[in-house]
Design goal:
Layout: H1 3-15, H2 27-38, H3 67-71, H4 79-99, H5 123-130, H6 136-139, H7 158-163, H8 166-177, H9 205-214, H10 226-241, H11 243-258, H12 266-286, H13 297-306, H14 309-317, H15 327-351, H16 355-372, H17 374-384
Amino acid sequence: MDATVIARLKARVNATVKPPATKLASVFVVLALVAAACGGGTTEPPDDTATSTAPVGQNEPAEASTLEEFFGWGEQYDPSADQERQRQVEEAVATCMAQLGWEYRPVDYGSAEYFDPFQDVSEEEWASQWGFGATTFILDDPWRDIDYPEHEFQDPNQAYVESLSDIERDQYYEDLYGTYDEPAIDPETGEYEEESLSFQAGNGCYSQASSEIYGFPEEGPEQDFTEVWESMERLEQQIMADPRTIEADKQWASCMSDKGFTYQTLSEAQEHFYMEAERFWMTMEQAYVDPFEGWTEDEINLWFENTPPEEQEDFFAQYNQGPEFDEATTAEIRTLSEEEVKTAVAAFACSEPLKEIQAEIRGDYERAFIEENLELLTEYRDAYGF
């Protein structure tokens, strides 16, 4: 498969939110697709008697036996913990701003309850409605029409900020949020140049407070974790090449065949619909309209300052109606979506009996992988706040 297509596939799958019931909604959803596209490795299954060649200090005993446990991917989200950390951030911001000569009252976000509209949706229910979340998301966005609970928010600092002069207010926000350099735009593509995307907010009270409470890494050169991603891809290829995985895939394919499908692996079925969706995603990206195209930065800031929240919502709503396709294209997408849902429902049914052996296989490899790469994985986890 072309490397560019693989990269786009990774980005698309990463951007697709899976329901809470999907336990492995993680990097390995991506890696399974990529591994299937690139071919499996030839590494033998882990041997407990083999001598590790990991660098000294990297194969210390690890508490987690799977990457899901190590990175906390399967943990139940606890909103109260985040609310407490946010309270601490606000207190730290108030202290920082006071030291700079400003008034700042901590904002209380605790009253806003965590809301997950899909927390009670099972994997089977999700499959029956949204399939793999590929072509089904093109015309119908499950998040677009949700009625989220309304919370009236009152900024305790609004009156104070409005009492400042324009010059004072600019300095206030600079001290609060920091500054950033406008990224350069590639004249050929019209997109931001990746190397110029550098947010310089180390001098802002919010950045300092967040770093203090959440433990974000200090401002500096970005760490290169290419080795982590490459090693994870190799790991996934090893799992795919394990004889037990191959046998499980055969059982899965036989089950799918009985239901009228010809896919040999789950990743093959997923990849098929993601690649079909890719054609339409590209059309959608090309049709994107920037609501502020032609506006200056000052005009945009002034609009936000002077436009009531209700009018802002109405303004953005007209740009958030989803893509528009002609009748023939819409019919094609609907047909693909129906096929995707049928495939996903069948895939779920055929996967259920194999989950135990698949978890055992993955556990064998991931346990050894964590022990051999503990130091590197810990650095990666700490850098990205998993």
